[in-house]
Design a protein that fits this description.
14 helices, six-stranded parallel sheet, 2 domains, 34% helix, Dihydrodipicolinate Reductase, domain 2, single chain, Rossmann fold
């Protein structure tokens, strides 16, 4: 448990705050992960009273897992301040200081749950009214996207650093808050069995996939300007890749882990047109339901060239991984909602088990499932009982739900970490800039936009180009 603080949510009446942040904070408080003296002040452009805002939050907490009594206590302590103009920022600062004086609070957590175009102006406003400094610690949480290219990311970092030291900045990627992503570090570094095999001599390929069965939904206005590469590959999947590929850190501390993650980004082989396949979904069936194609979605530009699918072959030019392909795959309107890492080990150098001249031995595959059904499985060959000599691949499984664990929401984990001052699961400025540097030549690549039917695993071109080996998905 960290110190008590005033938590300021900018964009407090928005979808992110109501659906994710406030339920996560309410759950954390009900579990004793936040001090009872911590207070939450929400701010937004909408003209709401604290009473009407509390009613909205009460509805948002229904079904969140927070008990009625805990929800009532949590909501009663909320304050809302309308910030429709520059004068509103002064009112917000006065409200924060009054709360701190009344409650004896010195620390501040400022969460920017805002659209990208509002971030820079908000940072300057925070500095102008003095909210970026205080008598205790002041920590800033920034949601992605962290810029839209290298130049904009560098500019955004410059604006942030004009008001906050990097040690006080928490760039949040909610994928890194998932329990199985964190457990990946335990799997690798607490189990000598895996770490001793975790290199190019034993591993043939790695796949990191984020598949979504949903379409763009209400995000079309944003998504149509961004696409799958910038929305998913550049941040979520590349961040997971760094955790899979990083060297053993000197200590399990934020700075040591960040140092090793950065080394992976610095070792990426430059992106070329042969490494990336992009696609866009057309009409089809998902879960037995007919759905429209991307071009027919509300809010999408006529003739939009935005990709909803991307498959990227990444190579890491270092001693551990040279020659091992990493396949990063993401897409919308795919058959299932699935986020997972598949590590395929090399087969035995000599095949001792054959049938009619065909080798029966399969590659061992370690699968880390991030969502749904979080857990791990290691797929190994065994003999089929009663047969002369037939092999079958079976999984050795660990699933959190089978042990009765209640998985915390990613935002709950990450918000508690901010209060505790733990930056391990957050993205450093250098990581942001190196990730964008890797994709800096993307706009100059002339890539065909392939179509794929909704409810399929993406365009066939990804297979014919050797970007994605389907058996990593279908066999395990």
């Amino acid at each position: 448990m960290g110190e008590a603080a005033t938590i300021i949510i900018l964009g407090g009446a928005g979808d992110l705050a109501l659906r994710k942040l406030l339920p996560a904070l309410a759950l954390a408080r009900s579990k004793g992960k936040l001090r009872e003296t911590t207070r939450i002040i929400a701010a937004g452009r909408r003209a709401l009273t604290s009473e009407s805002y509390r009613s909205q939050v009460s509805r948002a907490l229904e079904g969140s897992g927070v008990s009625g009594a805990d929800a009532t206590t949590f909501v009663a302590d909320l304050t809302y301040v309308a910030v429709p103009d520059p004068a509103g920022w002064r009112a917000l600062a006065e409200s924060v200081r009054a709360c701190e004086a009344k409650r004896g609070l010195a620390n501040r957590l400022i969460y920017m749950a805002l659209p990208p175009q509002q971030v820079e102006g908000t940072l300057h406003a925070l500095g102008a009214v003095g909210l970026s400094v205080g008598s205790g610690w002041v920590r800033l949480v920034v949601e992605k996207p962290f810029g839209h290219d290298l130049a904009s990311a560098q500019h955004l970092n410059g604006v942030i650093h004009a008001h906050f030291a990097e040690s006080a900045v928490y760039r949040i990627d909610h994928y890194l808050g998932k329990e199985t992503v964190q457990n990946l570090l335990v799997l690798r570094f607490a189990n000598a069995l895996f770490e001793s095999l975790w290199h190019r001599d034993r591993i043939e390929a790695v796949e990191i996939m984020v598949a979504e069965s949903a379409g763009v939904g209400s995000r079309a206005g944003y998504y149509d300007q961004v696409g799958a590469v910038r929305d998913m590959l550049q941040n979520h999947l590349l961040q997971i890749l760094t955790l899979v590929a990083m060297e053993v850190p000197a200590k399990m501390q934020a700075d040591a882990i960040r140092h090793e993650k950065l080394k992976v980004l610095q070792s990426l082989v430059p992106l070329g047109p042969e490494a990336l396949v992009v696609g866009q979904y057309g009409p089809g069936q998902v879960g037995g339901v007919e759905v429209a194609g991307y071009q027919a979605e509300a809010g999408v530009r006529a003739g939009s060239p935005t990709e909803t699918y991307a498959a990227l072959r990444v190579e890491i030019d270092n001693w551990r991984w040279q020659g091992v392909p990493f396949y990063l795959v993401t897409g919308k309107r795919m058959p299932d909602r699935l986020t997972r890492i598949a590590v395929r080990f090399r087969r035995a150098p000599v095949c001792l088990f054959e049938s009619m001249g065909t080798c029966m031995v399969s590659s061992n595959v370690l699968v880390v499932t991030l969502q749904p059904n979080e857990g791990f499985s290691l797929h190994i060959d065994v003999k089929v009982p009663g047969s002369p000599m037939a092999l079958r691949q079976i999984p050795l499984r660990f699933a959190y739900d089978e042990l009765g664990y209640q998985m915390p929401e990613a935002y709950e984990t990450l918000l508690v970490d901010v209060v505790r001052g733990d930056q391990t699961l957050f993205v450093h400025a250098d990581e942001v800039e190196h990730a964008w540097r890797y994709f800096s030549g993307l706009s100059s690549l002339s890539l065909p936009l392939h179509t794929y039917d909704a409810g399929t695993w993406g365009p066939s071109a990804a297979l014919s180009h050797g970007i994605w080996e389907r058996r990593l998905v279908t066999e395990v």
